[in-house]
Amino acid sequence: MMWGCASSRPVPEAPSSNTSRQGADAAYAVGFTTRTFEDAARQRSLKTVVWYPAPPGSPMVEHTASPIFVPFVAAKDAPVSDAWERWPLVVLSHGNGGAAVNMSWFGAHLAAHGFIVVSVDHPGNTYGDTSPEGYVRGWERPQDFTALLDGLLKDAVWGPRVDAERVGAAGHSMGGYTALALAGARLNLSPIANLCTAPETREHPGCDELRDVDYSRIDMAVARASYKDSRVRAAISMAPGMAGTYEARDVADLDVPVMLVLAKGDELMPHAQHGLHLAKLLPDATTVVLDDAAHFTFLPECTELGFKVAAMLCRDATPGTRAASQARTRAEAVAFFQRVLSAQR
After folding, report:
1. Are strands 61-64 and 72-76 parallel, antiparallel or unpaired?
2. CA atoms of 288 and 303, how far apart (whole Å)
């Protein structure tokens, strides 16, 4: 997924701009900043983007993270709002080969509604640093957030502002797996290895980055271990990755509220075999089905250039519906997290 160095320009009438983009019920301006946390034990640098509630009047500007996606609006390095001493936290995971900053369509909206949101570039599986083996090693992703939570809660700046009793997780595609893994789901790689290496099925479109992996180098027991983090009290999974591979035992440890946001027109993981399969395994989950959405509907809206050079990332099942699908997703997410994390006080 394409993204470059962020640039910014002023947005006229910033408060009204925030209201129009984040909804009439947006209570806060949106701040954002970047930080790097070190996971010394695994020798991984965790580059993060943080969106958070900012004080009224914070200078909202457009930030262009990629020429193929529309900008997001936030106040760079603004102070955190003092409306509350501590804020609920959502950790947010991007999809395979994506980037933390391109989850801004979701993260900035949560921030405008009273959440601190932290997204990380997953080493080995982020734009500019990815490989088929990095994709397969999905179990590294929830561990990134466990290390990030450790660092964030001890941090002199962010630790005092986060309510450690109200932590949620969310993500798209492999980020959707990541959110579920933090809540207790396990990764079942064996069906992927079989599908993507068998001569008769290796050309399946979902195998594009998986067919040439040397699965003999993968410890399937390590892959299928639990990477649950008990600090995570709820999870939202959008177009969840590997959804068709789950068996009942892989979700048996999920004991927190879960919301699935499924794309009926998902071209990479067909709805009936993947999203609905997972929904049946999780009958207590809140399930939202977006009739007009495709797999990449959960990326930012595309610019004209995006439609020309990255058509796959700009495709929706019904053209022109990405904004509406995202608006519903954001509204459902805010309501869900406010309810299950008791964010409304």
Report:
1. antiparallel
2. 27
Please give the average per-residue pLDDT across 160-189, as a whole number. Answer: 97
- How many domains does one find in the chain? 1
Provide the token pair at 180.
């579920």
Tell me whether residue 240 is in a domain.
yes
Q: What is the pLDDT of residues 215-264, one digit of tens each?
A: 988 999 999 999 999 999 999 999 999 999 999 999 999 999 999 999 99
Q: What is the DSSP letter of 140?
A: H
Q: Is 50's pLDDT higher than 80?
A: yes
SS3 track for 146-175: HHHHHHHHHCCCCHHHEEEEEEEEEEECHH
In a domain, 1, yes or no: no
Can you point out the beta strands (E) in the chain?
7-10, 29-39, 44-54, 61-64, 72-76, 87-93, 116-121, 125-126, 129-130, 162-172, 232-238, 258-263, 286-290
Contact 111, 84 (CB under 8 A): no
Question: Residue 33 domain-assigned?
Answer: yes
In a domain, 345, yes or no: no
CATH code, 235: 3.40.50.1820
pTM for the whole structure: 0.91
Strand order in the sheet with 232-238: 7-10, 61-64, 72-76, 29-39, 44-54, 116-121, 87-93, 162-172, 232-238, 258-263, 286-290
Dihedral sign of CA atoms 285, 291, 295, 300 in order: negative
pLDDT at 11 exceeding the cut of 90: no
What pLDDT band is residue 293 in, cutting at 50, 70 and 90? very high
pLDDT-based confidence at residue 12 (cuts at 50, 70, 90): very low
The whole domain housing 276 covers 7-340
